[in-house]
TrEMBL record:
Keyword Glycosyltransferase: no
Signal peptide: 1-23
Statement: the UniProt record of this protein carries the keyword Signal: yes
Residue ranges annotated for the Secretion system C-terminal sorting domain, each copy included: 686-756
Alphabetical keyword list: Signal
Family matches, as Pfam families: FG-GAP_3, Por_Secre_tail
Protein name as catalogued: T9SS C-terminal target domain-containing protein
């Protein structure tokens, strides 16, 4: 074929493929982050209820918008998630931090589980970005224009002048370095711990000395132990008076055989006593506290530490059980830099950290030159959002029978005097169907944490026992890390107040191959009237376990090891699954959320053996760009869905690893069904058939449904049904046989459908 023809054909195909995909899926799917649904805790409206939780945050300020007040950026080492907050002025002229996720995608990707600090090295009034690269340091210049952040890589990695020539400037990925003008000459220096973790290094910026330019990045290593000290083998053990000229960090007259600690140190360099000398606040990966080392010498390179205080601050000292890190920024809008402490860990080692309250705020009641840090609270930013610690798993259901959706949220666990235990929080919807207000009623729904010492609780609502009411299902791991599935039977009728007796908990027969981080979803896959089980597996696939028992006594057997034949990408493990009609086309979609923070939309297969078609992997639209948002909503995503604003389209709630929930407003193109009367009548509006007791009815119109025998005589009472809302008919009192289901639709022709009852 002629090359020009090939090029034209390729162009035409590139134009047509998106249109064909849109035609096949019946419309455009989209969501956007929303904070419209009010959340109340102890009578207080949360400022940022749907921000998604925070575990261990690294804090910096930067200008995100066009005003003159610095905004706030955090980076969470555990999830590598960046969060952005605007300084928002209130009617009384005060300010608060308003979560603004639309700016998050304007930051570059950060190496997973490392660090990010913002410092203006080139003195242009725009903070630049310092972060980890493989074994070293990466610097990106803030090249923002016209109010939009952009970044230009200046060095990756950064090199320095060493004894043996030009070398990589090493920074441990676990560390938090100090990036500041350490020698008061106007350019930015770098302080970080040595590769062995025992002594600190000064990488002095020689730009001013050599070129009289304070905006350069010309680093030289000075000596072998900045400050003449070494961190020794235990917490609060330091050796002072080192002679830093000697290679190997030997101490004249000291015990050179002291045990060097494991790598991992966080540093904050700040003048604490107002003498003009920069002191050191330091913490170690194995220690719970922060130590203050007092500078008795001068500023770099003459810094000399001789004493330390092992608990800082003296009143209400910082203690995280393991590895605190400190940051100093103005966090209360008074122009004076405060202190914030947060764990610098990859996870909750030995479950010692309470991630509901892991961001300790100390207000500076002094000045920037002579700070006085006073304890305020342990949950800075966290207190303004849903934050249940870690591993939030939401579910929406009308628990009180008032017609609107209430919210249950499980968690991975919280440290208590009984150990590390998970619970379920209950938020009652005290608003309306179109304007929800979720008010916290308890953090331990039905007191399940007291009755079961479980972790990693996941909650669901489904009809497990076949009595037509929706039961409460919870999955968790025992103290021995063995997965368990239990349910509490709902004694009430469907649509009424849930009647749950927590003293009568049933254990569901364990399906084969259930793993400790598998994500369960209950759905009638084969439409036989019995609830089946889908498991999002650790390897990223979905297993289909068919209910081969009865409606009242479920038994789950593996039917498909790779349901939908998913093409699994690295990191996309343990997918959470929601099956729901997202756009009103009367065909449910399957949505997954994975541990690496991705949400994907699939067309639900007609048969369990068929592959699933990927419809969309860029569902979330950025408010600023009106294009797909590339920022991840969090890690270990757990999905829930329901219509929360009464527009006929379900919203998504996304639980995160950091214990919070994101709210995704459904902005998809709503499909108005325009099929012919004959086409609509062929849709599966009553199912399953055959059935052993219950029939489900889902009509496109409001109407009245009734079951008749083959003589046309009614054998059940008339049941009112709402359009697109599933209703249930109980045939338990009827003999086996063939029946007619009649649907009298408001203003529409009557439909009939033959069904078989077999017991």
């Amino acid at each position: 074929m002629n090359p020009n023809c090939m090029k034209k054909l390729f162009t035409v195909l590139c134009f047509l493929i998106p249109l064909l995909a849109q035609a096949q899926t019946g419309g455009i799917f989209s969501f956007r982050y929303d904070a419209g649904a009010t959340v109340k805790i102890v009578g207080k409206n949360l400022i940022n209820p749907w921000a998604g939780g925070i575990n261990g945050a690294q804090y910096s300020t930067i200008h995100l918008n066009a005003d003159t007040i610095p905004d706030l950026v955090t980076y969470d080492r555990q999830t590598s998630r960046i969060m952005t907050f605007l300084a928002e002025k209130q009617a009384d002229a005060s300010y608060l931090w308003r979560y603004a996720p639309q700016y998050e995608e304007q930051f570059p990707a950060i190496t997973f589980g490392t660090w990010m600090l913002l410092v203006d090295y080139d003195h242009d009034g725009k903070k630049d970005l310092f972060t980890h690269t493989n074994g070293g340091l990466r610097i990106l210049q803030n090249a923002s224009e016209n109010g939009k952040l952009s970044w230009k890589t200046i060095a990756d990695p950064v090199y320095h002048e060493g004894l043996s020539g030009t070398l990589n400037l090493y920074i441990n990925s676990v560390d938090i370095p100090a990036i500041l003008d350490a020698d008061d000459d106007g350019d930015i220096d770098i302080l970080t711990y040595d590769i062995n973790g025992g002594t600190a290094n000064l990488y002095q910026n020689m730009s001013v000395e050599r070129t009289n330019n304070p905006n350069g990045l010309d680093f030289k290593r000075i000596g072998f132990c900045w400050g003449n000290f070494r961190t020794d083998g235990d917490c609060n053990e330091f050796t002072f008076g080192l002679d830093c000229i000697y290679v190997g960090n030997e101490t004249k007259g000291a015990n050179s055989g002291a045990r060097v600690m494991h790598n991992g140190n966080s540093m904050l360099v700040i003048d604490m006593d107002g003498d003009g000398n920069k002191d050191l606040l330091v913490a170690h990966v194995t220690c719970p506290n922060v130590s203050l080392l007092i500078n008795e010498g001068g500023n770099a390179p003459n810094t000399r530490f001789t004493t330390f205080r092992g608990a800082f601050p003296t009143a209400n000292p910082i203690s995280f059980n393991t590895f605190p890190a400190l940051y100093s920024e103005d966090l209360n809008f008074d122009g004076i830099k405060d202190l914030i402490a947060s764990p610098n860990t990859y996870g909750n080692t030995d479950y010692l950290i309470d991630f509901r309250a892991s961001n300790w705020f100390y207000k500076n009641t002094g000045t920037n030159k002579l700070p006085n840090f006073q304890y305020v609270g342990k949950s800075f930013l966290q207190e303004d959002m849903i934050d249940l610690g870690e591993g939030a798993t939401p579910f929406l259901a009308d628990l009180d029978g008032d017609g609107d959706m209430d919210l249950l949220v499980g968690n991975a666990g919280v440290r208590s005097d009984k150990g590390y235990q998970a619970s379920i929080a209950h938020f009652e919807n005290t608003g309306t169907k179109s304007k929800p207000t979720f008010e916290l009623r308890t953090t331990d729904y039905l007191k399940l944490s007291e009755k079961f010492l479980l972790t990693d609780l996941k909650v669901a609502i489904a009809d497990i026992d076949g009595n037509n009411s929706l039961d409460l299902i919870f999955t968790g791991n025992s103290i021995n890390r063995v997965p368990e599935i239990r349910y509490i039977r709902n004694q009430g009728v469907r649509g009424a107040v849930f009647q749950l007796d927590a003293t009568n908990v049933q254990q569901i027969p364990m399906p084969d191959r259930l793993g400790i981080i598998d994500m369960p979803t209950w759905y009638d896959v084969d439409r036989d009237g019995k609830t089946d089980l889908l498991l999002g597996k650790q390897n990223g696939t979905i297993e289909y376990h068919r209910n081969t028992g009865t409606a009242t006594a479920p038994k789950y057997e593996l039917a498909r090891q790779n349901y939908g034949q998913l093409n699994v990408l690295p990191g996309a493990t343990s997918p959470s699954i929601v099956i729901i009609d997202l756009n009103g086309d009367q065909h449910p979609e399957l949505i997954t959320g994975t541990r690496d923070g991705n949400i994907k939309l699939y067309q639900l297969p007609d048969q369990p053996t068929n592959p699933m078609q990927l419809l969309d992997s860029t569902l979330v639209i950025n408010e600023l760009t009106q294009a797909s948002d590339i920022a991840i909503p969090g890690g270990n995503l757990a999905l829930a869905a329901a219509d929360l604003n009464d527009d006929g389209l379900p919203e998504l709630l996304v639980g995160t690893l950091t214990g919070g929930v994101r709210y995704l407003l459904n902005t998809s193109e709503k499909i108005i069904h325009t099929g012919t009367e004959e086409e609509e009548a062929k849709l599966p509006w009553v199912f399953p058939s055959p059935t052993d007791r219950f029939l489900k009815v889902k009509s496109p119109n409001n109407g009245i449904v009734q079951v008749l025998n083959l003589l046309g005589q009614p054998v059940t009472t008339r049941l009112a049904v709402q359009a697109h809302t599933e209703a249930t008919i109980d045939l338990g009192a009827l003999p086996i046989g063939v029946y007619l289901v009649r649907l009298l639709r408001d203003g529409q022709p009557t439909w009939h459908r033959k069904v078989v009852l077999s017991k």
